[in-house]
Design a protein that fits this description.
Elements (H helix, E strand, L loop, with lengths): L7 E3 L11 H15 L7 E6 L4 H14 L7 E7 L9 E2 L5 E4 L2 E4 L2 H7 L5 E2 L9 H4 L1 H9 L4 E6 L4 H14 L4 E6 L4 E2 L12 H17 L3 H11 L6 H10 L5 E9 H5 L5 E10 L20 H4 L4 H21 L21 E8 L2 E8 L6 H14 L15 E8 L3 E3 L11 E6 L2 E5 L3 H5 L3 H11 L12 E5 L1 E5 L7
Parallel strand pairs: 1-5, 2-9, 3-8, 3-9, 4-7
Antiparallel strand pairs: 2-12, 4-8, 5-6, 10-12, 11-12, 13-14, 13-15, 15-20, 16-19, 17-18, 17-19
Helix pairs in contact: 1-2, 1-5, 2-5, 6-9, 7-8, 8-9, 12-13
């Protein structure tokens, strides 16, 4: 697979998740570390740290960083959950040689990453790595505690039990005894903001009981028990998968110690919505183990139906949401909220996914705009792109109010794009295609080529032209990403 040698990821959290002033940030993190009261423990080989803004979780996270402060590791693996990109049974690896924070540049252990790429679970996933706060929030704190180190950032997707075990075995086969492994997670997200209100009285006490109930399974080094506890209680622990991978890596003699527990409710006094934070240290000496899994792989592309579960009622609701959003704009000249439209947002509609909204008028295209790389809830993308397709598709004049009743609406919910080694791996009719060459790129939805009657070379020629390239520029030096779509609409123009 093609790489981007010398590329540096730029962390964008400064000024949002913490101060953008380098000296002030160093002072703040130094204060957290000193105030923790923890002492260095050379037997610690793994940490569990929270990943909220430093004003909320920095003091908790510092308890963990303090116990490894001043040590020199061959590498530091930071595993965090994906918050933006759906990645079923996948772990995203970096496609760069370094990560830049406002405290300096961290070199990525490229040799270690290349070894991970041999395993089917580990791959480059566009949009998954830069900007993922669950990993990037840990970097400045670790920079202050450890100085410069070789970094292995991993963004962990939605894993089933078998994938958790496989990921643990793959990592164990590659690390050495001087590796630090960090699992990044916040614990329970409580309150209506997070759609999780299992109790309304004694919130602080009940949260502590719920969170520490989950931590009991961590102390037992029991990944399956940990996951079953979350399923049973509904506890909204965002980093359940990276924590489970870490637990599955631990040998029987590993010792897990809770260092600090706190909540944003305790910090701010707001118990209507609260997030819980845990710092834990694990005494473990990593010992490489032979791997039972094959190292050769073909690129795997997950079907949209494997990743996106959208029942018929939710499809109808999304189509209604798109139409009512346009109607509301005609009446009020602004974008509505879902609540203003009287539409209940279900878990399926909250899935993180790319989406396109297409308008047809009497069977002819009248507007189509969307986003390929998933960064937000499906319903949010649908609302925005309903308006964009109606009013901002440069190929057409803005939709007139009198036209709306003559139009039908189609929604394409997209699986995450996956890079393939060459155009030979593209299946027309099944795959949408993203072509990238230098700074230029273009995309076709899966239905474009069949609707036009194009073969693959013709499709790629048109895609290259759409990107502003020459008609044959797709033949050399391009990167190709493929994705699939769940397509549904108001009329015969939709594909079921």
């Amino acid at each position: 697979m093609k790489r981007s040698p010398g590329m540096t990821y730029m962390s964008t959290l400064a000024g949002y998740w913490y101060t953008a002033d380098e000296a002030e940030l160093r002072r703040e993190l130094r204060q957290y570390l000193d105030a923790s009261g923890e002492t260095r423990d050379d037997r610690v080989g793994a940490l569990i740290l929270p990943h909220a803004g430093y004003q909320f979780s920095g003091a908790v996270a510092a308890h963990g960083a303090r116990v490894v402060e001043g040590r020199s590791f061959s590498r530091v693996i930071v595993m965090g959950p994906t918050h933006r990109v759906p990645m079923r049974n996948m772990i995203a690896v970096p496609d760069a040689s370094s990560y830049q924070t406002i405290l300096g540049q961290l070199p990525i252990d490229e040799q270690f990453v290349e070894r991970l790429r041999r395993y089917p679970l580990f791959r480059t996933v566009p949009g998954a790595m830069p900007g993922e706060h669950s990993i990037e929030i840990e970097f400045p704190l670790l920079q202050v505690a450890l100085g410069t180190f070789q970094l292995v950032p991993l963004v962990v997707g939605q894993l089933d039990d078998a994938a958790v075990r496989e990921a643990a075995d793959c990592l164990l086969a590659e690390l050495d005894s001087n590796t630090l492994v960090v699992a990044s997670t916040d614990f329970t997200h409580y309150g209506p903001r997070f759609d999780y209100v299992p109790f309304v009285t004694n919130v602080a006490e009940n949260l502590r009981k719920l969170d520490l109930g989950a931590f009991e399974f961590i102390q037992r080094r029991d990944p399956n028990g940990f996951r079953r506890y979350i399923e049973r209680t509904g506890a909204t622990i965002c980093g359940r998968d990276p924590v489970a991978v870490l637990l599955a890596m631990l040998p029987p003699e590993a010792e897990v110690r809770l260092l600090k527990y706190d909540t944003s409710g305790q910090i701010t006094g707001d118990w209507d919505n609260s997030v819980s934070y845990v710092a834990a240290a694990i005494r473990v000496r990593w010992s490489p183990k032979p791997l039972r899994y094959p190292v050769e792989k073909e690129p795997a592309v997950h079907t949209a139906s494997e990743v996106l579960q959208i029942p018929a009622d939710d499809r109808a609701a999304l189509l209604s949401l798109a139409r009512k959003t346009i109607e509301f704009y005609f009446a009020h000249r602004r974008k509505p909220t879902a609540a203003e439209l009287g539409i209940k947002i279900t878990p399926a509609m909250r899935q993180i996914a790319g989406a396109f909204v297409t308008l047809h008028k009497h069977g002819e295209l009248r507007g189509c705009i969307g986003e390929i790389f998933p960064t937000r809830a499906l319903y949010e993308a649908v609302m925005d792109h309903a308006l964009n397709a109606a009013f901002k598709d440069y190929r057409f004049p803005p939709l007139a109010e009198s036209e709306l009743n003559e139009c039908d609406i189609e929604i394409s919910a997209l699986s995450e794009p996956v890079e393939v080694p060459s155009s030979d791996h593209i299946e027309l009719g099944r795959h949408g295609i993203v072509l990238q060459k230098g700074s230029r790129s273009a995309v076709f939805l899966p239905q474009v080529a069949p609707e036009q009657g194009w073969d693959l070379p013709t499709t790629l020629t048109h895609l290259a032209l759409k990107a502003g390239l020459g008609p044959d520029d797709w033949r050399q030096g391009c990167r190709f990403y493929v994705f699939e779509a769940v397509v549904f609409g108001e009329s015969k123009h939709a594909t079921k």
